[in-house]
C-alpha cells in the first residue's frame, strides 16, 4: 500500500522543510507519489538521505538494449534526474524515462507535459517486481499442494494441502459451479484459481509496509486492464452458438426490436470487462488515497493534536483494507465466472 510509516517519514521531512520556508504542504503530490508505480522501493529518509532499493531499468533504444540500475540516475546541472548510457542521455520525470533534449533535459509544453521521445521501457518497476514475487509465492504454494494430493492418494491432502483445500473448494463450490455449471466448470478452474489468488496476494503485498512488498498490483490500471482483457478473451472464445445468437439476433422478440437490441448487446460485450477493470482498480486505489489523506491532515493542520484522530482512522482503514483485499479478489473471480457461464450456457427454448 503506502510505502510504510517509516517511508512516510520522507514526506514528513519534506513537509517540515516546506514549513520552514513557509510553503504550503502539497497533499496531492504526496498521495500521487505513493500510489504511483516507481523504479525503486523507497524505505525512509534518515538525516536527509533517502534509503531506497533500486530496481533494474531495461530500455530498448535507438542504439539497442540498454540496462542499468535506477540508482544510477543523478541530478546534473539542469536539475534533472539523468543518466548517460551507450552515448545517449536519458531523463526521468515522474517515473517516466525520456530521451534528453539537446540541452540534456526535458522539454515541457504549455500543459507541462514532456515532449521528449521515449524509449521502449521494459523495466522491473515496483509493481512488476511485486507481480514476479506473487507468482513465485503461488508456485511455492500450489506445487506442494498438488503433490500433497498425490501423497494422500487423492482422498486427504497432506501438509499445506490441508490448509489450501478449503480455499480451493470455496472457489470451486461457491464461484465456479454455480455460475458456469457442473458440466463445464472444470475447464475454467485453473484460470479462476489463478485470478483469485493472484489478486488476493497482490492486494496483501500492498498492505505490508516494507521491502520487498508495498507494491500493490491492483493499484495499477494496466494490471487490472490485462486481467479484464484475459477474462474478455476467454469469454468470447468460449461463447457457443446460443450466446452469439442472443447478442446479434435475440430470440423471442419482434424483428424491429432485434435490430435495436443487437448493437446494445454488442456494446455490452465490451462494457463488462471495462467494469471489471475499473471496479478493481478504483476500490483498491480509493482505500490507499483515504489512508494517505488521513495522514496528510497532520501536516495540513500543522499540529500534532490531529495525529491521534488521523492515525486512529488510518489504522481502522488498514484493517478494513484486509477485508477489501479478499473481497475484491472474490468479486473479480465471481464476475469472471459469471461472464464465462453466460457464454457457455445452453438455453432451452420451448
From TrEMBL:
Record key words, sorted: ATP synthesis, Cell membrane, CF(0), Hydrogen ion transport, Ion transport, Membrane, Transmembrane, Transmembrane helix, Transport
Transmembrane intervals: 127-146, 188-209, 221-239, 289-316, 322-345
Keyword Ion transport: yes
Record carries keyword Transmembrane helix: yes
Protein family per UniProt: Belongs to the ATPase A chain family.
Function text: Key component of the proton channel; it plays a direct role in the translocation of protons across the membrane.
Alphabetized PANTHER family for the sequence: ATP SYNTHASE SUBUNIT A (PTHR11410:SF0)
NCBIfam families named among the record's database cross-references: ATP_synt_6_or_A
Name assigned to this protein: ATP synthase subunit a
